[in-house]
Write a structure and sequence with these properties.
By secondary structure, the chain is α+β, with helices and mostly antiparallel strands. The chain has helices spanning 14-18, 24-34, 70-77, 79-88, 105-112, 136-147, 192-204, 219-227, 263-276, 312-315, 326-334; strands at residues 38-41, 48-53, 56-61, 64-65, 96-99, 116-120, 130-133, 153-157, 162-169, 174-180, 183-185, 241-243, 253-256, 280-287, 300-305.
């Protein structure tokens, strides 16, 4: 059935697309234009679109679509609710608690104990998050940083292990990457700041196997260094290797492990997507071995991303086969 509003809307073209930002929404627009689908922008200054293919159509408003359950998005965005939701699905998560003030840190550490992770409750892509906190000074500093992003702060037990992202689409397709942080190795002469500059120069010259982003220096970098008792002006000992970020989002690497994951994780993706009513979800996992269920190796789900999680790194991993998920997502949205 034809939408009556469409006759009063102008189709978007390539020039309109060039003005758009980054992320999965932009990838959807690019795919639609390349495949000659009809795209209509409903309002001039709002990112609300109608996509049309023959007699089928769907709407997008930033991370929401006409096939998205807004309650499911709300749960996924709230880290505490998401953890409670995962517990009810019987998937393991880290112990933690929500606090509002610096005074509550003392009680939080008594209950959870070092090392811990500090997260703003509603942050995305690692904003305001500090991991592997082992002392009170860094705990207080991390709390103050997290407060810039949210009034509610989540304190969690830090669980060591490898970091994975599994992206699952409601049509049953999926991809998985092992996300490695950017590392530098000391030579006993250069400062950490100098080593980062050198590493970025080397990486710029790489082709396949290079990073998607350069290693950036930020407040997050400095907090991560502090957890290792270093700062940007520290001279790193010879052969000493330290991480500079959480994952590829900040300059690390993505390794395709889609064919290695245990069927347990495919079921997990299906459970989360179908229960929350989302077209796509990104599941962040800590595990020593993705070939085994989390229940067998003390792994956990860190969080779920229900607002159009990034899929670009699946299509451009630093190691392994490329998996382009946008066609699967589009087919589902049109179904």
């Amino acid at each position: 059935m034809e939408l009556s509003i469409i006759k009063n809307l102008k189709k978007m073209g390539v020039d309109d697309f060039k003005k758009m930002g980054q992320g999965t929404s932009r990838e959807i627009l690019r795919y639609a234009i390349e495949n000659k689908l009809d795209i209509y922008r409903v309002f001039d200054k709002k990112n609300i679109f109608i996509f049309k293919k023959e007699s089928n159509y769907f709407w997008i408003n930033r991370a929401l679509t006409s096939k998205t359950n807004p309650i499911g998005v709300s749960i996924a965005k709230n880290k505490h609710l998401a953890k409670e939701f995962l517990k009810k699905l019987e998937y393991p998560v880290a112990d933690g608690m929500i606090i509002y003030s610096e005074k509550e840190l003392v009680d939080a550490i008594k209950k959870i104990s070092f090392p811990v992770v500090v997260k703003p409750l509603g942050s995305a892509e690692g904003e305001g998050i500090t991991i592997n906190i082992n002392n009170k000074k860094l705990l207080v500093d991390s709390f103050k940083v997290a407060k810039k992003f949210d009034k509610k702060i989540l304190i969690e037990k830090y669980i060591p292990g490898d970091y994975y992202r599994i992206t699952y689409i409601a049509d049953g397709s999926y991809a998985a990457t092992k996300n490695l942080p950017a590392y530098i190795t000391g030579n006993g002469k250069k400062t950490i700041r100098e080593l980062i500059k050198t590493e970025n120069k080397i990486n710029k010259e790489r082709q396949k196997g290079g990073r998607l982003k350069k290693i950036s220096i930020s407040e997050k970098t400095e907090r991560l260094l502090a957890s290792e008792n270093y700062n940007l002006d520290s001279v790193l000992e010879e052969d000493k290797k330290i991480p500079l970020c959480f994952s590829g989002f900040d300059g690390g690497e993505y390794i395709n492990v889609t064919n290695e994951i245990h069927p347990y994780f495919v079921k997990m993706g299906k459970d989360i997507v179908s229960t929350l009513g989302l077209p796509i979800v990104g599941i962040d996992i800590i595990s020593p071995d993705i070939r085994k269920p989390l229940t067998e190796n003390d792994g956990i789900i860190i969080e779920i991303n229900g607002t159009f999680p990034s899929v670009q790194f699946h299509g451009n991993p630093t190691q392994g086969e490329s998996i382009y998920l946008i066609p699967n997502l589009m087919n589902y949205l049109f179904s």
